[in-house]
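Quick question, first post here. What does this chain look like in 3D?
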Amino acid sequence: MNPPLFRSLRPWLLDTFGRPVHRVALDAGSTCPNRDGSSGFGGCVYCDVEGSGTGALRSGSDLAAQLKAGMARVARRDADCGVIAYFQSYSNTYVDIERLDEVLSAVEPHLGQPVLCVSVATRPDTLPDWALKRLGELAQRTAVWIELGLETASDKLLQEINRFHTVADFERAVERCHAAGLSVIGHAILGLPGDGRDGARHTAEVLARCGVEGVKVHNLMVLRKTQLEQWWRDGKVEILEPKTYVDWLADFVERLGPDQVLHRITGDAPLEQRLAPRWDIHKSALRELLEAELQRRGSRQGSLCPGIIAPLSTRNEGLRKGL
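> Answer (accepted):
Ran it through. Tokens below.
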């Protein structure tokens, strides 16, 4: 059997933890500096009112109950599986130290069985030293991932979409996380207004240069009750078609480091919340399309990463396309 052309998450988890591992999404009721007025209001233009999370806390479910319910749900699928406790919504280190300790205490009784990893979503500009120290201490006992949104490697666009941090902020945050003994998963969005194919390539290059251990990437989605919804209704947003997205995604993957793990290659939002795109391709089908495109190019993950010598067929393909 030929080796895979890119590193996907499921086999990596199995190799790393020795058994299947599933995420349990948790909502700690956090907020963001670009929502509460510290940097801005309204959040990122593509972010819905749940902060890309579940809204469970606001519905009355505390963290312990969320985790317990999530563990029971995944156990019904696989009794021997492990769990990633994923603090998903908003910026989970944008809190005081007492609150972070309270949040982490919800997973403490379950570390080792079934919780094998704690994943904390936050922003590059909301990582105080005390938070890194606390999470670094936790990393002595279990795997800890910090999920950081880069989204695009354009400072101009980061301002336009209300991210309100810079690429340099992201790079420094990755360095500080690594110094604290934490792994980093960088997030990217392909198809942001004004970013284009070159922007997608550049974002991958930045993520490769930073040495993040994992990458989540997806196509731009227009969700209800977002600022992006109005841009889309005004005709200011061009949505990628599946073939275009796969082409750009292949470009992106070629420029990642060969050892970086692709945690996600497509977005995931219910059709009732998603205005665009309306194409509904299953994740497994998209993986097959990406694999086929890389195979067609004679390429693979890392082929165009600086410092990686690409196969001759890949270099010829790049020359043919004027890369």
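The radius of gyration is 19 Å.
Strands lie at 21-26, 82-87, 115-122, 143-151, 183-190, 214-219, 222-223, 261-264, 274-276.
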